[in-house]
Amino acid sequence: MRFPSHIALALCGGLLTAAETFTEDLLVKPLQDGRVLLHFEFSVQRAAPTANDTLHHYQLFPRQIGEISRRYDVNELYLSFTQGGWREGKWGSPPVNSQGIGAEVRARIKEGDPAKSESQWRGLTNALSGVFCASLNFIDTTNTATPRLTFADADSPASGVLRHGYLPRENVCTENLTPWVKQLPCQSKSGLGLLLNPYRLYNTDFHSMELSLSSMKDGKGTPVQQYKQRLSVVVDPGTLGLGDRWSLADLVDRQLGTACPVAARSTVRVIQPGFGLKLTPKPSETSKLAGRGVSVFDLHKQPSVDIVFEFAPQEGNDAWPSERPTISAHRYVTGHGGSSGGVESTLTNRGDKPVNVTYLDVLPWYLRVYSHTLEIQTQAADGSWALLRPTSVAFTPAIDRERPSSLELALVLPPSSRTTLRYSFDKGFLKYTEHPPDANRGFNIGPAIVSYQHDALSGELPLHCAIEQALAGPSECIVRTYTELFLASLPTPDFSMPYNVITFTCTILALFFGRIFNLLTRDFAVLKPFEA
């Protein structure tokens, strides 16, 4: 029996859609200083494409990402745009693992010829630059590292060549958000995408937009490909003229509608601060997240809901539990003058158990790091200092205008300790064409990254791990902490000298040429007195 073509296409489309699942979730968390965290998470999961898959059907999975991963042999991909600093002292642990200001790209490319891998990485950054309207095409060999210790954890099980690039001066704006939203199955037409108002999302104290592509196995052991889009913002209701009573629509200036029709799950989850918060209407259900009560609003059961938040007045911050992460990291630049300098990083372990961490610092080629100047000291809870020997060291020296220097350390931080790392560098000389327009301001240097695996017995689960386990099930918790950026002041030439030389030379040439041209072209004639 032969079916009409439109019926066959509908059946095929239904089968393909059934093989792909889409979920959307919004987490709302009131913070200690009166601000509010909004964390959007969209996830698409499909069967992993095989080598014999030549049809390349795309239903819910974004076609741009699928074609880019297939074209450049990418097993894993991570991209983030972050603006503003995360204040862990007031806001607790972050909802995402990307707190470094700027743009970060990380990809694991299938193993092969090193030259081909480099070409694939270059093509990948250029493709992502075009898709997301960013300056990712400026990521080249001079700011690309190949970490060996930092990202070799359980959430990166795939094999391949790892590439990591960072642009600390990348500005984030609405032109990055627009293509990001277009990759959602319902875009901004329905579901939680309706709340993505760029006028409010970029008028915030912290903004982090990221996407990740990973290969894994589901509960049945079937290989699947998972694509996640996350957006985290910290909004201050006070700057919007809102008091102790406001709604979600007031916060983002958009009214929430129905759930996305193709979403298997569409929820809004509100983390209760533990006191004085009244929500209207009543949630669909309640649950727990990181030891805190959570009110869950299911958009399939409560469409077009507008959640109203009403806070009772509180005196002091005693009711707020301490949520500072177990490990915190900070980095500073030391030294003075235009010839040399140094880096000092401080790692603090607030837990009562030793923690294994990896430390990654990638410095550009014009900051020539000396590995023999590395000094690591740790201060115990009783105030005594001792030298700390790393369990593993991976150092890659820089090559001028070819690759940066990379320092990776595996450390065991003692309990209740403060560890300090120091190392020195020399400042190189740049050509005058290699300086940015604001050369006297200095060069932004990307952050150092500290990674460790959270122990379930050592304290409260970090927020991003609690969200992941609540939405996707139990998994290992890998925490990455980013330090601050710092400015490197390099020897700067006198940019007025070329102008002075050009002006002086042109003046001399003009005078010389004018006189010579006058002598060569003038017609001299002798006039008699009576003809004068």
From TrEMBL:
Domain of life where this protein originates: Eukaryota
Protein known as: Subunit of the glycosylphosphatidylinositol transamidase complex-like protein
